[in-house]
Request: fold
Amino acid sequence: MSADSHAHHITPLPTYFAIYGILLVLTVVTVGVSYLGLPTLPALLLAMSIATVKATLVGAWFMHLKYDTKFNIFVFLAAFWFGGSFFLFTFIDLTSRGDILKIQNVHELRAESAEAQ
Reply:
């Protein structure tokens, strides 16, 4: 597909206002979820699900990925995939540190060194 054959798409203004309204409603829902007192994991999954929907709306309409070439969409999603994998490995590291420290008895060593001072 050459640059000359790529037709520009003009999104009607009411569509932008509708997407903006949906984003506002989803933001209010996200804040409302934080006041429900859900356990950490379900609250996090729900908040991340809402954030994913919001990111999809922004990417599709405000960044015009809905009407863009498949390659640009692939590059955009690949960046999210790599970013997500980095966050996943960091999350795994942070959540498993306590278990590793317990196995190596580091907690007791820290307590003993604090008592010695």
